[in-house]
Amino acid sequence: MKNKKHFALFIMLVITSMAIVGQVPTPGPPSPPGLPIDGGLIFLVVSGVLYGVKKKIKN
């Protein structure tokens, strides 16, 4: 039983490694640089804090 588990693990590792190595990036223009975190994130944090305070006061 233990040998079957080891064999199954080995087969799964071989198949996944072949799938990972077989992926070739497509040629094309370079990707743009990452976008900066702007006011949208601050709005979400502030609204989450206000919502939590409102729920805490209500209970």
UniProtKB/TrEMBL annotation:
Keywords: Membrane, Transmembrane, Transmembrane helix. The chain crosses the membrane at residues 35-53. InterPro entries: PID_CTERM. This is Signal peptidase. It comes from Polaribacter butkevichii. The lineage of its organism: Bacteria, Pseudomonadati, Bacteroidota, Flavobacteriia, Flavobacteriales.
